[in-house]
Amino acid sequence: MVQVCLNGSRGAADGAAVPLTPEAMAREAARAVTAGATDVHVHPKTPCGRDTLSPRVVAVTLEAIRARVTVPVGVTTGAWSEPDPAARLAQVRDWTVLPDHASVNWHEPGAGELAAALLERGVGVEAGIWSGTDGAARFLRSPLAPRVLRVLAEITDPDPGTAPRTARALLSALAARPAPDGPRILLHGENATTWPVLRLAARLGLATRIGLEDTLTLPNGQPATSNEELVRAAVREYAGARRGAGR
Length: 247
What we know:
This protein has one domain (2-214, 226-245): Alpha-Beta Barrel (TIM Barrel). It has 8 helices and 8 strands. It has helices at 22-35, 55-66, 85-93, 111-120, 135-141, 163-174, 194-204, 227-245; strands at residues 2-5, 39-42, 73-76, 101-105, 124-130, 150-154, 185-188, 208-210. An 8-stranded parallel beta sheet has the order 7-6-5-4-3-2-1-8. The radius of gyration is 17 Å and the shape is globular. It starts with a strand and ends with a helix.
C-alpha cells in the first residue's frame, strides 16, 4: 500500500504545487492514484489555506475527491486544526459527509475520546504514533488499540542517518500492540528522512506513504512538481528496495 498525502499543513508559501482547494486536491488525488497510490490522506483547508475540521469544508473536500477516485479517502484530525479537544470532538461529531478513515495523533489531548467517536460513526481510525512522544505507550494502554484500522508510525527524527534506527525502535515498541494478526503499520518519515524511511518500509514489507505533505523533493534532491511525480518515484524506490531485501 502506498498512500498519497496530498498537502498536509503546507500552504501557498511552500509552492504552487501544493493543492489547497477541493478542486486542486481532487485533481492531484486522481493523478496520484493513476501513478500508483492506493489510498488518499488530505488536510481540508479554509479559503485562506488553514487546516480545518469544519463539517462544511470536510464535506466539500471529500465530495470533490470522491468524484475523481474510488480508493479510500481519509482526513487529518490534528490538534493544530482545532486546539481545543472538546471543540475538535464536536466538529467531528457534526460531520455530514464521513471519510473512510481519519488520523488521530495519540500523543495529543483527547485522542482516545476522538478515536472512540470516529469508530462509533463507522470511520476507520489511523493511530498516529510519532517518534519522540509518549504516543506509543498511550496507544498500547488504550482499549481501542485492537480496533484501529492501522498505525501511522511517523518518524520525526530529522536526521537521515539516524531516522531508520529511530524507526526500528518505534516499530519494536509497537510490536506489543494487542491485535490478532499483529500490527498493521504504515511507516513514513518527513522532509529529509522521507526517502530513507520509505526504503526501510519497503525492506520490512510495510505500507508507506508519500506526497507533498511529507516532502517537496524527489529522491535525487530535485524539487517535486506534483504528488503524481512523488508517487511514481515512490513506487520505483519501494520496488527497488524490496528487490534488494530479497537478495
